[in-house]
Write a structure and sequence with these properties.
This protein is of the alpha/beta class. The protein has one domain: Phosphoenolpyruvate-binding domains (TIM Barrel, Alpha-Beta Barrel). It is 49% helix and 12% strand. It has an eight-stranded parallel barrel, surrounded by nine helices. Helix 4 packs parallel to helix 5. The two termini are 36 Å apart. GO terms for molecular function: oxo-acid-lyase activity. This is Carboxyvinyl-carboxyphosphonate phosphorylmutase. It holds the Pfam family PEP_mutase.
Length: 290
Amino acid sequence: MTANSRRKALKNKFASREIVVAPGIFDMISVRVADTMGFDCLYMTGFGTVASYLGEPDAGLATYTDMVNRVAAFCGAAKTPLVCDADTGYGGLLNVAHTVRGYERAGAAGIQIEDQEFPKKCGHTPGRRVIAMEDMVKKIKVATEAREDADFQIIARTDARTSLGLDEALRRGEAYAKAGADVVFIESPESVEELEKIGKSFDVPLLVNVVEGGRTPQLPPAELQRLGFALAIYPSAGFLSVARALEKAYGEIKAMKGTAALESEQMPFKDMCELMGFPAVWEFDRAHAE
């Protein structure tokens, strides 16, 4: 499946309004695991990618170069369409155009751009401030002009709900849709009633961010679809689970208990070898053995 066909498939899925659930991927192992599971879409989480790649908080520290490097690696390893976080576009309007072209050429099926001030902060965390709506509208217009493939999805996120209220967030979402955004993302609604109001306010596909321990109530995907959402992302589920599993495993080692008791909870070593492509290496070695 080519990058163009993946984009077309994802666009058609969004248009059907049958909800797409997308797990957050953040490193090459998470990409390979998720890619085997038959999802319609994967989501490159900014929090998880910055944490795993730089060991830093998702607070505007990662550069365009850092992130497009990850986009290319993740998309190169996956057959599943990827939607990729691009923060604020990494600068002004020229930067946004450069970012869109770079993410598209790296193989992404869609890009998420938000209306926060620089340096941005992770959603569901305090201290987020937004730029003027008119400035974000310009970014969306530039993004749509910069893409080469019309099926490359432009996802416009607003963080206005937390600091300026839901009505302002809805007003911005409407403006971003009119500017050409394919998908609207109102970050951090704080009740089922707010989710319902968002779902009734737009004709374009909507994204909902499901963060364990975050500001937004967790609802089953079927309920989110009923409310009007086309894409539910689960950015933190993977890295939170991995971090707790590592903490447990390393704790057993530190306590001098060894790891035998953990084997039933782990992926078998042979399965990990298969996941990472070792059978092809072994076949190559047999074919070229002297």
